[in-house]
Write a structure and sequence with these properties.
It is a single chain. The chain is mainly β and 176 residues long. It is built from one helix and eleven strands, in the order H-E-E-E-E-E-E-E-E-E-E-E. The protein has a single domain, classed as Jelly Rolls (Sandwich), CATH 2.60.120.1340. The protein has one helix at residues 8-12, and strands at residues 25-33, 37-39, 47-56, 64-75, 81-88, 91-93, 107-110, 118-126, 134-142, 148-150, 167-174. A hairpin with a 2-residue loop joins strand 5 (81-88) and strand 6. The longest helix is centred in the N-terminal third of the chain and has 5 residues, at 8-12.
Length: 176
């Protein structure tokens, strides 16, 4: 069954033809990290989050890549922060403006309880302008004197109310 937006017969059935050419999803690639990780790196030297990398090869230079991240973060110190950055290859993307000594990041959290985990999600439409393989990855850092944690609570007690979680990075090629 097919129809156009102006075709009332098919609109009533919920079928609407897609726009000519653009906006279709060409491919979807995802990496899921189910193990835990920690960092003690200060925000002046972000480090890669092991296992949080995904590769995609766009089919046209006009394609865009929708980057979606979902991280479960905590920190071992009450009131300390954990921050993260999104990269396309070696270029940081989706970040705040520069302002004095402030870290330029994609997201982050400030913890008030070591047993609560914050779910942090970002969505960004990138324009890599490439038909070569592109790598999207995440880096992170924690406030001095604390430890940032991924997929677990800060104090990680062996109890039911201290969960283990999964985090992911998903990329979709959006055709022009």
């Amino acid at each position: 069954m097919s129809g156009t937006i102006g075709d009332n017969v098919y609109r009533a059935s919920g079928v609407i033809a897609s726009a000519a050419a653009g906006g279709k999803i060409g491919q979807v690639v995802q990496t899921v990290k189910t193990d835990t990780a920690t960092t003690t790196v200060d925000p002046d030297a972000f480090e890669a989050i092991s296992g949080m990398t995904v590769n995609i090869t766009p089919t046209a230079t006009s394609s865009k890549v929708l980057v979606m991240t979902n991280l479960h973060l905590c920190n071992t110190g009450a009131t300390y922060f954990t921050l993260y950055q999104i990269f396309r290859d070696a270029t940081q993307i989706y970040m705040g403006d520069a302002a004095d000594d402030r870290a330029r990041v994609s997201g982050g959290m400030r913890e008030s309880l070591e047993q609560s985990v914050e779910s942090m999600s970002e969505i960004y439409l990138d324009s890599p302008s490439s038909i070569s393989a592109v790598t999207y990855s995440l880096k992170w850092a924690a406030e001095s004197s604390s430890t940032g944690t991924l997929n677990r609570t800060g104090n990680d007690d062996d109890r039911l109310d201290y969960p283990r979680l999964a985090s992911s990075i998903t990329v979709m090629e959006v055709l022009a």
